[in-house]
Amino acid sequence: MQVKLNESLWVINCLNFQNEKKIVLDFYNSVQKCRTDEIPEILSLHYSENIIWRGFHPFNEIQDLVHLYKDFWQPLKKSFTNLQRRMDIFFAGSNSLSSNRDVWVVSMGHLMGLFDTPWIGIKHTNKIAMLRYCEFNKIVKGKITEVAMFFDIPHLMIQAGLKPFPLETGISLVQPGPISHNGLLFEEQNLIDTKNTSELIEQMINDVKIWNNFDKISLIKELRKNWKEDMIWWGPSGIGSSFTIERYVEQHALPFRNNFINRKFNGHICRLSEGMFGGFFGWPNLTLTPNQKFMGLKTTKKSSDMRVIDIYRREGNKLAENWVFIDFLHFWKMQGIEILKC
Fold this sequence. Notes:
Elements: H1 7-13, H2 18-33, H3 39-46, E1 47-55, E2 60-62, H4 65-79, E3 80-94, E4 103-115, E5 128-140, E6 143-151, H5 153-159, H6 191-210, H7 216-224, E7 227-234, E8 242-243, H8 245-259, E9 260-265, E10 270-274, E11 277-281, E12 286-290, E13 304-306, E14 308-315, E15 318-326, H9 328-334
Parallel strand pairs: 1-6, 7-15
Antiparallel strand pairs: 1-2, 3-4, 4-5, 5-6, 7-8, 9-12, 10-11, 11-14, 12-13, 14-15
């Protein structure tokens, strides 16, 4: 694939992100080793006082350290004994959507612990629980100033014996990291790899924006431009995961496109790549209107938001794997259904 990125993006990707990676890793190590009552001091050390923290419903947006501790970290550490972060992907880069070239650090994997007390209304199991997460951290002057921390909470509900959604077109799993086992980019990456990944993701996004293929044959043709034939779409619980282009079209892409009308793309807050990996998040990415049942639940004609993270792995000149997080608790709340209370 020819590299055709403009000169400004070339300059952005020449930056070294090792200091920013260290800031985030130091924070992770401190949180994992500390007592719960030590977290406020750790947050003050690593986070800006004017933090903007975006999390899935019921956390939503938090803008001060006191509430971040009381509403999120304290209950989480209390509910999950011996909580540990098991990362599968870790990378950093400049936000290609920002004129300030702000640097973000991304990690993805599972938070694992012993689910010993209830959390956000989900009954504990006294067993291992794997909370699938992805986190974007913006670094400014040595501090974390913005965070997007998305969870697959419905998957945790499934582990607790609940069935939040009646129908999945794919299958929910404890998802592995990349098959290449090279997702932890602790070291500086090859510039050409980064540029090629950026270009491929941009090309894929532009194709998706068109949103004009609503039959199986044309949608497969669209996907084959940017995706390997044996691609894996690691989707959120409620939709589930799919393997190969054809099954992805059958089990998610085609039903999803036909389930919604009045689709509006709101853009992304951050989009970056490093080496063979890249991703983005929005708040919200999409606003759309259901026109039939979705995930086995009755819908209304109300336009509703989807907050989404996508993480990609490139292999050669095609995308090979895609990990997806969608805040379905927020989407269904806008539809009038509180999934956590079902």
